[in-house]
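pasting for the record
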Amino acid sequence: MSAMAPADAALMKRNVWLLFLCQALTNASTVGQVAMSALIGHSLATDKSLATLPMALQMAATMAASIPAGIVFARLGRRAGFVLGAAGAFLGSIVFALGVWTGSFPLYCLGAIPAGLGFGISQHYRFAAAEVATPAYRPRAVALVMAGGILSAIFGPELVKHTRDTLAPFLFLGTYLILALLPLICVALLSRTVLPPPPPRTAVATPLREILARPAFVAAALTGAVAYGTMNLVMTATPLEMMLCGFGIGASATVIQLHAVSMFAPGFVSGRLIARFGARRIILVGTLLSAACAAVALSGERFGHFSVALMLLGVGWNFMFVGATTLLSEAHRPEERVRAQAANDFIVFGTVACTAFASGAIHAQAGWTMLNLLLFPALALALGLMLLQRRHALA
């Protein structure tokens, strides 16, 4: 940063803030969908056990987006890829709206596919932030773009709350039509953002298995998968457990909102912490915070227990995931970055998709206690990887 001309530094920060806004708008659509999908699925599905199927399909599509996103980013560049993602988010909102309007559960589920693809592509905003930033500013850039989620955590539920009845008697129809405008705003912001060109293409591409075998890649990808997987496992089951404990929808919504804010608010400082103390140390702190979440959740089932546990989980996720993203930037050469990022997100969101499907089943069959106990072996894996890297200085 100190060696940069003031104009270059200002342009870099401007690009990061534009990516921050794009991330916020994209996440707002997803947070809004989280607030609505189970309710709509329950009202449209004949079999009420399928109420959460749309969200599960959306997370599966997010995982599947990793491979085509990598191809588009590698061949056409970041801008084309992000515009394609915005198109998927727009189409998803329109199909969701049609499903609500026609009262068709299959059509509503279909909307989850393009919506999930759009959300999956949008996960590369954090990688774009790393690419437009200098090495010294990179952790702060990644953390700041991810902090765009704090606006989503506030804006998404409020948008649902104030637009759900605008086109009555079709509940949430107006919400989806407004959500369809958000990706169009993203496209406008992207037109003002200076993004890196496609990576250089080499005559002989590095075999993917070689990238996957690098200890640094393994540590980054598995840490990201543990961070997102454990968070999603507990978050998804929390409203169900609170319902069984006698809490209403409003109480569980408040806990989820506190959790969402805790996930993204640390982004304003976690980048600075990583720059000062290193990604591995911050990841270690994140694993301890996530373990503390499970300990609090197991200690009681009052509103305070759920609130504190989910807030600890949110901060732990942020430290682990931002740290893992920073480590990933050190695990590949410039010409390999898109392939490495696509492989990383396939692993991470494949884990998320599995936990989205498994959370309800684990909670129903084994209970809240066992679900929280499952966090400890996963977190121990991440902790072991960081300690091993620190001890042997793996590259």
